[in-house]
Amino acid sequence: MSSPHRGRLDLVLDLGKTRAKLLVVDSEGLVVAERHRASRSKEMRGYLALDLDSLADWLEATILDLGDLRQQLSRAIVTSHGAAFALIDAHGLVLPVPDYEFSGFDQRPDNWSAQIGAFAETLSPNLPLGLNGATQLDWLERHFPQEFAMGQLLPYAQYWSWWLSGVAASEVTSLGCHSHLWNPSNGSFSSLARKRGWADRFAPMKRAWEVLGTVRPALAHRLGLPRDLRIHCGVHDSNACLARYLRGWPRSTLVSTGTWIVVMTPGANDAKLDAEVDMLGNVSVRHELIPTGRFMGGRELAHLCAGADPSLANAEDLDRLLQRGLMVRPSFEMQGGPFRERSGSVTDRQGPIELTALTASERASLAACYTAQVTSWIVDRLGGAGPVVVDGPFAENSIFTGVLAALLPDSEVCISIDPLEGTARGAWQLSRWTEPRIMEPRIRSVPAWPSEALNSMHARWLADIDAWMAGAHA
């Protein structure tokens, strides 16, 4: 994807849990250059950590590979996944940045539930592994007390902003992302963060779009970057995606898709939030409370595809499977989502069936249908207002979007048709947030997939979910 570019260029670093992307975008919002690679983790100091050294090497090599484009860069902004925090001093990282999938984070103090306090304060469910940032900080402090006592804390996106600029900052979207570190209602650090002394350890708060400074002189010299390249504070990835819609649609529902499917409902009533089903209070770049639900939809889709290309999903295969009575009961990832405590299965009218008994296109079709069902359940539970906009890779899956539209008959379901995914687009727009002209989101409505067999199966699916929840949360 490329275009003739106009004016100065912008550098966007989209550092996701699954993939890292580097993009160069011109003043009209068109992508001039794009590079990507898989994100990596490895064991360091006895725990699973993000491999920042290899990522830094890749970023430097990729920037050098931009050639003459480097000298046209005027600003840079970072967006990254949540549940990751860095501890730095004047020399760099004090400890490796933990990967939230490290199993050791489940080893918690006996009184941990009492320490984190009531859900009403943080609007953050008590999640497995290291999906709560406070769980990671507690574990590090108990296992590395001397190192942890040194340095300054900052969210993962702002670590890379510091790497670029030398200026340390914190930003609310990562702190307010199911961390137990933030009180979304009061707009301040949580009681836990204050009692443990962590609140005072975080770098100063900045807005996502604020300029921290210019690129480090040594980095500019080594990579051939302009010395006046401005570095913005940066933002959590799902909230970057949301930011691009906030100006025009203060009441809407965003379905941000990728490794996680995150449903964000600005303007909805937070009274519907329920920690038992992994619903939480997110915080927007404007410090607004955003009722949110999510599940690991990208991982669940991959599990059900079992090696099949998701693009093989089609209406004919799905209709045939539904006529046979196939249904997918959640769930297949235990790291989050409303059904994370339940083991998933695929069944027909005779009982369980193995994925290997299905063709590749059948698996892809069933996976798309299932992830749409869970997404629609979350949208309904949150009471999200229309339009419902699907952004990210799932927007290209016509079975996912068609089933979602069929299951949300009272809402207009739209997809982003921007060639740039919402996370990167939102980050780019935040680098221009204070400008009067801003690009309107490019969307189109999608038709519902009419199917009596789908309606019948989904009714059985909902009844099964209701029965399970009545027993699990009795």
TrEMBL record:
<dbReference type="Pfam" id="PF21546">
    <property type="entry name" value="FGGY_C_2"/>
</dbReference>
<keyword id="KW-0808">Transferase</keyword>
<dbReference type="InterPro" id="IPR049382">
    <property type="entry name" value="FGGY_C_2"/>
</dbReference>
<dbReference type="InterPro" id="IPR018484">
    <property type="entry name" value="FGGY_N"/>
</dbReference>
<feature type="domain" description="Carbohydrate kinase FGGY C-terminal">
    <location>
        <begin position="252"/>
        <end position="432"/>
    </location>
</feature>
<dbReference type="GO" id="GO:0016301">
    <property type="term" value="F:kinase activity"/>
</dbReference>
<protein>
    <submittedName>
        <fullName>FGGY family carbohydrate kinase</fullName>
    </submittedName>
</protein>
<keyword id="KW-0418">Kinase</keyword>
<dbReference type="InterPro" id="IPR043129">
    <property type="entry name" value="ATPase_NBD"/>
</dbReference>
<feature type="domain" description="Carbohydrate kinase FGGY N-terminal">
    <location>
        <begin position="11"/>
        <end position="240"/>
    </location>
</feature>
<dbReference type="Pfam" id="PF00370">
    <property type="entry name" value="FGGY_N"/>
</dbReference>
